[in-house]
C-alpha cells in the first residue's frame, strides 16, 4: 500500500536539512546548536528569507514591527463567531482575511499575523482588552507583551526566541508540503499559509503539545507515570510528544528546548516538581516504547518540551499550535517562495484500484 510517501524526495531546498539517523538539524546552513539560544527570530528570518526580502536583520526588524501594527488593524473585525472557535481555528479565520499575493508586503503581514492575532484572540476570549503592538520591542518580546499586557523578563524573551528559532523550519514536514502544493498552483502565499496552518493543527503534527500537558496532568505524580503510560499503550493509544517520521534518535530540538526550559527554571519560572514530573514521564515513556516496539525507534520529539516551555511562558495549552505557527511561518514562506521561484505545479499520480462497470 502507498501510504505516507516515506523516503520520497519531493523538493530541493536551501532552507533546512533534517538528518534523522544522526539527530542533526541544519537550518539555513547553520546547525541548530549554533542557532537556538543565540539568535533572535528576526535574525533567523534574515537567514531564511533575507534574499527574498532583500533586507538585513535591522530592516526586517523594522518592517516586521510595522507589519504587526498593520495586521493589528484587522482585530477590529473580530466577531463572536471567531471568538467561539478554538485559538488555532480563530487564527486561521483571521489570516483568511488578509490579502493574498506573492510579494514582500504579503510575506511581512503573514510573518506578523500569528504573533498579533494569537494574543488578541486569547485576551478577547477572556473578556480582556487587546494590547496593541509596540514600536520598540522585538518580535518575541512584543508577542509576550501583547499576551500579558506587561513587559516580559529577558529570560522569557530569550525562551520564546529560542522556541521560534528552533521550530522555524524542518524539511518537508506535512504542513510545509501543504504550503508548497498550494504555492505551486500560484494561488498566493496567504493561501499557502492557510493550507499549512490547517495541516499543522492535527494532533499527529503541530497539535501534539497541548495533549502532552493533558497527559502530564492526568499522570499527576512521577510514581504514577509507568502504570498510566502502560495502560494507554495497552489501549492502543499513541503517546504525544514521542515518535517521528524522520528521527530514529532523539529529536535535537527536544534538547534545545529542554535547555531553554532549564534557564527559565533557574529564573524561577518553572516549578521544580513540574520538571521532575516531565522527566519521569519521559523516562517511563521511552522505556515502555522500547519494550512495546523494539523494532521501531520511538524517541522524544520536539513537542514534549515545547509543551513545558510554552506553559512556563504563561501560554494556555489550546494556543500552543498558534505559537508553533508563529515560528514555522518563516519556513513556510521560504518554501512557498522556493516553489514559486524554482518549482512547477505539484501533481503526483494516483493508481485507480476501484471497480470497472461491466
Ligand atoms: C512537530 C511534529 O509534527 S513532531 C510529531 C508530533 N506528534 C506526536 O507527538 C504524536 C505522537 N506520535 C505519532 O503519532 C507518530 O510517531 C508520528 C505521527 C509523529 C510519526 O508517525 P509515523 O512515522 O507515520 O509512524 P507510524 O504511524 O507508521 O508508526 C509506526 C509504529 O509506531 C507506533 N507509534 C508511533 N508513534 C507512537 C507513539 N507516540 N506512541 C505509541 N506508538 C507509536 C505506531 O502505532 C505504529 O505501530 P504499528 O506499526 O504497530 O501500527
Ligand atoms: O518533520 C516532521 O515530519 C514533523 C516535525 O517535526 C516538524 O514539522 O517540525
Number of strands: 3
What's the shape?
Answer: globular
What is the typical, i.e. mean, pLDDT?
Answer: 97
Helix content: 55-70%
Bound molecules: acetyl coenzyme *A, oxaloacetate ion
The radius of gyration over CA amounts to 20 Å
Beta-strand content estimate: under 5%
Structural class: mainly alpha
> How far apart are the first and last residues' alpha carbons, in Å?
26 Å
Strand order in space, largest sheet:
1-2-3
Order of helices and strands: EEEHHHHHHHHHHHHHHHH
User: Segments where pLDDT lies below 50 for 5+ residues?
Assistant: none
Q: How does the major sheet shape up? A: 3 strands, antiparallel
Q: Quickly count the helices.
A: 16
Defining traits:
about 350 residues; 3-stranded antiparallel beta sheet; 16 helices; about 55% helix; binds acetyl coenzyme *A
What does this structure look like?
- Pfam families: Citrate_synt.
- The chain has 358 residues and is an all-alpha fold.
- The chain has helices at 32-35, 41-53, 57-72, 80-83, 87-95, 104-125, 139-148, 154-166, 174-184, 189-200, 209-219, 225-234, 252-266, 272-292, 302-312, 320-342; strands at 16-19, 24-27, 30-31.
- A 3-stranded antiparallel sheet has the order 1-2-3.
- The radius of gyration is 20 Å and the shape is globular.
- The chain starts with 15 loop residues before the first strand and ends in a 16-residue tail after the last helix.
- The relative contact order is 0.16.
- Bound molecules: acetyl coenzyme *A (ACO) and oxaloacetate ion.
- Acetyl coenzyme *A is lined by residues 4, 204-206, 208, 238-245, 293, 296, 298, 301-303.
